[in-house]
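Lecture notes, unit on protein representations.

Consider one protein chain, 467 amino acids long.
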Amino acid sequence: MGRQNVTNVAYTDLKDFVYGKAVHPVTTKRGLVIGGGTIMPEVNFTLPTMLVEKDTMPEVLDIYREIADGICQRAVEIEVPGVQLECEWVPQTTFEPEWGIQHMEVIEEVCESYFQKYGLKVAVRSTPVDVREVGSHEGLEHMWHGKLWDKVVRSMEGSAAAGNDFLSIESIGGKDVHDEGLLFNDISKIIFGLGVLGARDMEKLWGMIVDVAAKHKGTVAAGDTACGFANTAMVLAEQNYIPRVLGATARVAAAARSMIAMEMGAVGPDKDCGYEGVIVKAMTGKPITMEGHVACVAHLSRVGNIAICCADLWSNESIQHIKLLGGFGEVVGLEQLAYDCRLLNGARAKSEDTALLLRDLYADSDSYLDPHAYILRPDVALEIAKGIVAEKPNDFLRVKKACEMAVKVMLDGYNSKKLRLSDQELGYLNKLGEDIAAITNDEGAFIEQQLAENADNPKFKKELYDL
């Protein structure tokens, strides 16, 4: 099919841009409708601290069976309208794809049994690790061929063959330069990492994932996340290592990159840790998974409430299979998510106006206090989306435009007293705007400049991206 560029936002009325409803809902083989009017939990889980190797694989499979059984059992008990399970593979099981495929088969088997026995509408998302980064010590031959690429491909193929509903990944193309951009507060490197390197990688990677899904009935390509980019920026900002306005700008820029998965044929829902999903949804109309206050089991943030405003699935990020007083971590996480969703769905059952009121209360509670929260407001995200898609369909220019839009909306928010910024952060923001304005619109000239500036970066090798 090739890439289908988005040139208009999916929403013309802010009242339609709300949780649980997407322009293009997705229905799974077991009847779970995502984005069709009901917000539901997606439980993201991982193993406890343990060795993952050939000898421990029987134990690993038993743990994954226990995780899936615990989530499904509690979902039946508290009568959720539907639930999605996401397994983020650990690196070892992507380095040895057959191991990962085995545990995805186990999870699928458990979920199917609950569907058959109880009619539980349950879906499974498989998220292998992008070992092209964590596997660099093994010698990355190329971003789009070689043994590490082949491991990612095999992991996707095996997940689809196992019957998993959704394929996702936290891709890392361009992270080698983006990290430098964050470290040195260099917006040009951030734009290069996302708008040139990351964008080229997204086309290749998601072209492959969409092709794999198309060969297996009932499996679809879901979506990506800029976790390695924008979440890194968000956490660094939260720890006061970089300006908060820079972290927020990196998030907006990441939206133009993450959208490429959708343009390549992914149908959603995108990944939970992609907080930029709200902007992606505004541009594409495809459902999204978001995470917020329940995700504090994995990382802290200042976007705990606002993240839910436009979510179609509500996630806990990643929780370990550890015993808490109430039960295992993933079961506790499900219950927390389920009650959030019950309130949101109850508001919609009252009326659409009540649902919108609740959406706006969640937004207002966070958005004034932090720039990263402010750019996730539904009204602000929609304004950003309009600016990005109005730019010509060129990834470099769209990522640059995203950065311009981020600065614009934050300045507008500050000037209208809707966003609190310290004098120091305001100074950073004004300087950021000047730095973005100084960047050329000539992509060829920009790439040549960046290749020269990144020549001494030991992590970056232009040959890996065919540059």
